[in-house]
């Protein structure tokens, strides 16, 4: 099989879920020219929120990384939906923003964000190398531990 995004997902044992419908008054993605922006994605798995709580007290870094990876899987699901089911239309991942629900003393947001970054580089290859922000926040929707949004260049 050719080395494609789909083959790398398969090799990683990842099946993208159906893109989640918006939970409020927004759209899941916006395309402007060759730029595709996703809305923030939560660590949903099998239709349920998989990781809740604050990093630094209720959630450890390793579990936070797993949550960030789930968010990244959901980001790719949204991108796939927006691109008519064709992930080969991704030119490159430009920017990843990772929001980490954190206790005030927690300072390892960058390590949590690696869960998303590492996964996206694994799946997208060189197209997955990106600029990034990892931001600690006091709370996220539905008590999610992590939320991730992405900006892609499309072909």
TrEMBL record:
Residues 6-146 form the Endoribonuclease L-PSP/chorismate mutase-like domain. This is RidA family protein. Gene3D superfamilies: RutC-like. The lineage of its organism: Bacteria, Pseudomonadati, Pseudomonadota, Alphaproteobacteria, Hyphomicrobiales. InterPro entries: Endoribo_LPSP/chorism_mut-like, RutC-like_sf. It holds the Pfam family YjgF_endoribonc.
């Amino acid at each position: 099989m050719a080395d494609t995004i789909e083959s790398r997902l398969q090799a990683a044992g990842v099946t993208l879920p159906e893109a989640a419908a918006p939970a409020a008054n927004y759209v899941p993605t916006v395309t402007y020219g060759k730029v595709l922006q996703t809305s923030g994605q939560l660590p949903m798995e099998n239709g349920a929120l998989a990781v809740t709580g604050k990093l630094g007290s209720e959630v450890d870094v390793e579990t936070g990384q797993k949550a960030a990876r789930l968010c990244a899987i959901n980001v790719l699901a949204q991108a796939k939906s927006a691109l008519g089911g064709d992930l080969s239309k991704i030119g490159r991942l430009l920017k990843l923003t990772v929001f980490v629900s954190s206790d005030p003393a927690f300072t390892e947001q960058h390590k949590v964000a690696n869960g998303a970054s590492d996964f996206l580089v694994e799946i997208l290859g060189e197209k997955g190398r990106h600029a990034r922000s990892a931001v600690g926040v006091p709370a996220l929707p539905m008590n999610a531990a992590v939320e991730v949004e992405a900006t892609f260049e499309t072909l």
